[in-house]
Amino acid sequence: MRIFQVIFVTLAMLAGLSIASPAVQAQAAFGGGPAHIAAQLMAESAAPAPGKGTTIAFAMKPEKGWHGYWENPGDAGLGMTVTWTLPKGVTIGALRYPVPETLLISGLMNHVYEGPYAVLANLGVAPDVAAGTRLPIRVKAEWLACTDKICVPESGELALELVAGDGKVVPAMQARFDGWRSHLPRPLGSEATYQIVDGKLRLSVPFPADAQAREVHLFPLSDGLARFAAAQKVSREGDRLLVETQAGEGFKGGAAQAVLRTGDHVGFLLSAKPGEVAEIAAKGLAGTILLALGGAILGGLLLNVMPCVFPILGLKALSLAKAGGDERAARREALAYTLGVIVACLALGGLLLGLRAGGAALGWAFQLQRPEIIILLLLLVTAIALNLAGLFDLPAFGGGDRLTRQQGAAGAFWTGALVAFVATPCTGPFMGAAMGTALVLPLGAALAIFAGLGLGLALPFLLLAYLPALRNRLPRPGAWVGRLQRILSIPMFLTALGLAWLLWRQRGLEGLSIGFFAVLVFGGALAFYGERQRSGKKGGMTWLVGAALICVVAIASVPYADPRLQHQDEGNVVAFDAEKLDGLRAANKPVFLYFTADWCLTCKANEAAAIERAEVRAAFEKAGVTVMMGDWTNADPAITRFLEAQGRSGVPLYLWYAPGKEAQTLPQLLTPSTLTGLVR
Prior knowledge:
Elements: H1 2-16, E1 27-28, E2 37-43, E3 54-62, E4 68-74, E5 81-85, E6 90-92, E7 101-105, E8 108-113, E9 117-125, E10 134-146, E11 151-163, H2 171-181, E12 186-187, E13 192-197, E14 200-206, E15 217-220, E16 233-237, E17 240-246, E18 256-263, E19 266-274, H3 282-303, H4 310-323, H5 327-357, H6 371-388, H7 401-404, H8 409-423, H9 431-438, H10 443-466, H11 468-471, H12 480-534, H13 540-556, E20 573-575, H14 578-586, E21 591-596, H15 601-611, H16 614-622, E22 626-631, H17 637-645, E23 653-657, E24 663-665, H18 672-679
Parallel strand pairs: 12-19, 13-19, 20-22, 21-22
Antiparallel strand pairs: 1-11, 2-3, 3-9, 4-8, 5-10, 6-9, 7-8, 10-11, 13-14, 14-17, 15-18, 16-17, 18-19, 21-23, 23-24
Helix pairs in contact: 2-14, 3-9, 3-10, 4-5, 4-8, 4-12, 5-8, 5-10, 6-12, 9-10, 12-13, 16-18
């Protein structure tokens, strides 16, 4: 670890020679310009009482994209160092850091803070200091500011002008410090036990069985106790919480200290002594996997009734209807459809796990947070709609002969893949917890859960194929099939309009213009191809290839937009901010927090049917409830981490914070009475 630190800081100092950006009360190394993490020294009381004192804080505010480090920075980085200049009779205790976050970059685990944070310390005033005595506090602080690519050593000459007095604290300042204190690790009342066997660390922590623990992670304070980047396996057995991971190098044994995270910026400072610790039972992990797998299958099954799935399901209904009484054809298409759904879910899940392993903060539905993917879907859905409308006949597309007509196994497969790609972003009942669990399980178990989601989504069509009594209720093929195909083009065109609206929401008029240009080029090429087909001529495929290349160039020109700059308060709804949420909770204010996305129709249905109803707004306003919204339409690492801390990997998520209480997770299908009942 120390070798990494030396290399890291050396590179940081070289980078610091040429990096400069705006900040306050701090500067980069060698006077190289303002700092990327603004620092301010604050005191809870401007008049600390002799014999008591007060709490002081380094309020740190990183620029967007930058982060600071915990006292044990992990595989790379450095914590804060301070040099005090104090008047007679004043003492400063050790720095106290809030519970950190994990950031994996190129296989190196970093213990960081990516948003505003505060490092606290106790300031003591001797009893013999007379009231009214000036207490000038001076400190030279140094810290490291980094992005995922560069680091800059920074420093600040900070000061406080205090006067010995009665210790009075302004309510607003007390609320701010209470919010910061809530992020400090609390001392664990009982001693933990650890054992190192064959390079594996096992830790047993006394923890009540009914106490809540999410996103558990062990942050070692003792050098060499654990390898920072190693996976951590967590299990609960009665009133004990067990953590198992790879031991570090150079650990000297004896008493060990660590911070155990049990929630979003919530955790415990623990001391552990050597002792016997049993290996985590496999049955505990197996039970977790089976429970998550059941939730994934049931959640996938319920996705079939979600509004985000219906336009695509029409394609499969048409295909099954065309199979008629041919049992072998029906089963073949159902199996192909199921395979397409499962393969797509596995591909999305595998890609998500791979990107997260590389350090990206992503969640389920990450594919619809990219405007490039939205344009590709827009082109695909437009092609399907035009095919169903009879403009052209192309077997290679989802609506063509081989993909929707009788005995079209390949078509069933690609239809299933398309359903999974479009449907899975909507997190329905039972599915949210299952997907959140999958992200922290071993690779094989996680992929099994993603496959279970696909199985649940395809289950109705498997039942239709293998239960003749159900299949016989389907209408027989006839002339109506052609008319139905034309009718099904309508919801597909509406889906295309919805995707265009989503593109506008993500990238504004410029992104929408690029999307419309791509649709016009590709749609025109399809129309030309269809005309050549009807006249019996060849050569239309060349136009399609040329149009596809033009669309690729157009997609590559989609502008970048930082989603964090788009979050603004809207009317009575406050934009999600973790620091603001902590302040409201510290002030004992009731908060209704919900996470949504423009591509999640379940979210929008809940907003229209419940959240934005007049009676709900009136009830919340009367009770003084702050409504806070997290918009996840575009990828936002801060929202992703918060969702993960709640055991979720996608939206919607609805949380109710009653004054002085922990979050209550609400159902994923809301009604006005559900919300008004919270404040009744």
